[in-house]
Amino acid sequence: MFDYGCDMSSASAEPVAESTAPTVGGLTETEVLDRVGECARTWQRMGAELLALAYEWAIAHPADRLDPTESGKPGRERAKLYGGEGTPEVTEFAAATFGARMGRGTHAGRRHISAALDLKLRLPNLWSRVQALEVRDTYAIHVAEATRNLSAAEAAWVDGEVAESADGRIPWTRFQTLVAGKVTAAAPHLAREREERAARARFAKKLTPLPGDQAAGMATFMIRAPLPIIDALDAAITTLASRIERTLPATVTEAEDAPTTDDLRVHAVALLAGGFATDAGSDAGSDLPHCTDLDLAELDLRDLLPHTTLVVHLYGGTSHTDPETGDQITVPPGRDHDETGQPLDHVARIDGHGAVSETWLREVLGPRAHFQVLPVLDIDGLAPVDAYEIPTRHRRAVQLRHPVETFPWGAAISTSSHVQLDHEEPWQPPGPEQPHGQTRVDNLGPLHSFHHRLKTHGGWQVREPFPGIHLWRDPHGHTYLRDATGTRALPSTPGEAACRTTATVVEIYPGRAVELVDDLGPAGWAA
Q: Spans of biased composition, class Basic and acidic residues (predicted)?
């Protein structure tokens, strides 16, 4: 339960009057944002209604509506299975009429009819949440399409696993990753078939420009190979590019048109391919052949193959205490057996790649990789430090607790180079009046560099009242709850923006008070 309100009794600062706010097209900024919310809700309501109408249209066009003696003739309308297992056939011309009335093509009509049948008959949790205006139609349609080749039981399991997160609390890219992982866990045999097909689809070839393309002297070479090969190739190119950079004189590296990282990587590929690095199409690289004294003949290629690390996450299950015996029991992750009782392959996750079967790990990585099993890090047991610099162990702990940035609906991976660790309560130089241990896990949060700037200079505020739970407030007084399940906008009240300098109470569960101070005056959040 969340209780959100404003207290106008603060005497330390006068509230910002609504009439002083800038206007946009006759509306104040607050009114514009309120209208944005109304439009978004209307859009969501129309999407839900369109899916409901697609289902009604499908039911109105069953297979038995066709004359069996006519449907078998060449070119005549036939019945078609639009949805997955357990959905009825629909007359195939129905999609064209529905799509045209949508102002779209036949494909759009077919897509909506297929999704509506799957959601209504195979994914009941998502269907009910869509109709309750808790889930956007686009999220539900994506799940319907991702589960279409699954059995009814497998689709129902995925439905139960993703329905909670489908309400938009996580960004679209993270939701796609979640669905892909759950589909793999629901049907490991299908995932294994995809892995085997993908392994046979390897290639290394020059791409031919399409007719009419203006290549301007450039070309593309594409390689599709198993993950370990690509990672090894990337490491070799990165290593050689850094060696090339070290051979360049300051007149090149400090010049205004100094070669970029991509320039250097292309030169590294050229060196591997032909024994010299040259790029006639790059002014920045024109000096490289003269100042690069790396010779492929004298280069031991084994030096270009440093160890590459793949971080693999294996989930052994959840430990519980048996209420009757008091024994510790482990609940296996995902689906342990299919509907016939046959054991299922388990699923692992590789950072930066996604879900794979454990069979893939054994067959692809097993023969050529060295495995190091790392224990689970005791995040809460890390002692805080006084220094501003963040120790490696603390950085790793924050990245494990927050795989993605903590900004509302943020999607940046916490280990990315453009993500920074932010001191949520600004760090202050040590002194008699300053608290010790300012650099601690529960005062650090990963933020994309843009969102870091936004928090520092854009009027956004954040507090972490409990480990892993963040409360954000935008400059107009709207509050967002960010936790491990995603982001939710907390219920707001009319005139909220006028209360920006006053106390805002957010009741999550019993805990400690959180104090926020901004440039307009003090504001308190109690959690």
A: 64-80
Distance CA 137, CA 46 (A): 9
| Pairing mode, strands 461-466 and 469-473 | antiparallel
Closest CA to 465 of 420, 518, 521, 504: 504
Please state, in angstroms and rounded to a whole number, the distance separating the CA atoms of residues 97 and 42: 25
pLDDT of residue 430: 76
The domain boundary, picked from 186, 209, 242, lies at: 186
Please give the DSSP secondary-structure letter assigned to residue 381: G
- Helix/strand/coil for 54: helix
AA identity, residue 338:
D
Question: Rounded to the nearest 5°, which phi and psi values hold at 84?
Answer: -90, -170
Q: How far is CA 338 from the centre of its chain?
A: 29
Final residue of a domain: which of 186, 204, 223? 186
Q: What pLDDT is recorded for position 228? A: 86
Nearest-10 crossing angle of helices 137-146, 106-121: 80
Helices of type H across 206-320: 227-247, 250-253, 261-274, 288-291
Distance CA(112)–CA(99), nearest Å, equals: 9
Distances (CA, A) of 175 to 31, 51, 171, 453: 31, 20, 6, 26
Q: Residue 453 and residue 519: Cα distance in Å, rounded?
A: 16
With respect to residue 79, please indicate whether it lies within any of the assigned structural domains: yes
Mean of per-residue pLDDT scores for the chain: 80
Determine what percent of the chain falls in helix, strand and coil, rounding each to the nearest 5.
40, 20, 40
- Is the pTM higher than 0.85? The answer reads no
